[in-house]
Structure of Pc12g02920 protein:
Amino acid sequence: MPTLAIAGGTSAGLGRAIVTAVISSEQSSWNIVILSRNPSAPLWLRAIDKDGTSAQIHPVNYHCVDSLAAALNGVHTVVSVTSAVDGSQAKIQINLLEAAVKAGCKRFAPSQWGFGPIGSENISVLKWGNEGVWDACVKQKDKIESAKFNIGSFMNYIGHGIYPIPSPTSDEETTLRQNGVAELPQTEDGRWPRISMTSLRDVGRFVAASLDLPEWEEDMTMVGDTLTMGELLTHAEAVTGKKFQVDVIKPRDLEMKLSAQDDFMGLMWAEFKLAYTRDLEDEVVLQPVVNRLCPAIIPMSARQYMEEYWSSV
C-alpha cells in the first residue's frame, strides 16, 4: 500500500477532514503518516483510529530538511496543511518540498487551500504563506510532481459544521443568523458577484479521491458550489424563514477599509471581500477540475449546507 504523508495533519480543520476521508473511504488503499511538531494524537484522531493502526504520527522539525526527509522515507505523496502564522509558512513549504525530493517522494501539494490560481497573485495577504513556493515546485518538476489544491472559500464560514456533531459556533455568529443580519459585497455597478465555495468535508473527500489519479494537474481546483451573493442571501432567508437586514459594501468602501486597517485579520477580510467584488474567473470563481477528474464525489451545495447546519437557528 502506498503511503500518504500529511504535514500538519493533526489540525482539527483540513487535517481532520483529509485524514477522516482517507480512513473512511472504501476505495482507499493508503497508509497515512502525519507530520507534526506534537507527537500526541488529538482526540478526534483517537476517536476514528482507536487502535492507532490507520495513521501514525511522526514528530518533525519543520525547519530541518533532514528531519523532514527522515520522516518521509517510503512516502509516495506529501500533502501539506500547515498554517504557521509566525512568518515561516512559505519556508516550511519549501523545506517540505526539498525533503520530499530528498526522500524520493513522487507527489507534493503545498499548503495553499484558498482562492483560484490567480488569487495568490492578486490578494496581497495571501503572499505571506506562499511567496516563492510554487516557483520552487516548478524548479523541481523533473524530480517530483506538484499541484495546488484550490478550494475557493470554505463553505464552513457561512455557519460552522463539518462532521455529524456540529462544531461550536460563536455567540456573535449565532446572533447574526438569528437576527437575520448579513454584510455582502456588490460590484460597483450594483451586481451581485459570484463566489465558489467548498465544505471542509468535501475538500477531504476530493483529496482522498485524487490520491488514486494517475496524474495530477498543476491546479487541482475543486468546487462545492458556485453561486451569486444574491443567491446565497435568498437561500439564507429561505432556510431561516427570516428577511435579512443586508449591509451592502462596494469596492470603494472596501478600499477605504483597507487603508484604515491596522490588524491582519481586518486586512484579510477586507481584501477577500474586495476580491469578491472583482468577480474574476480563477480568482474567486473557480473551475471544477477535481470534480471532473473524480466524478464519484458529489459535493454539498451551499443550500444543503445551510439546511443541515442552520436547522436549529
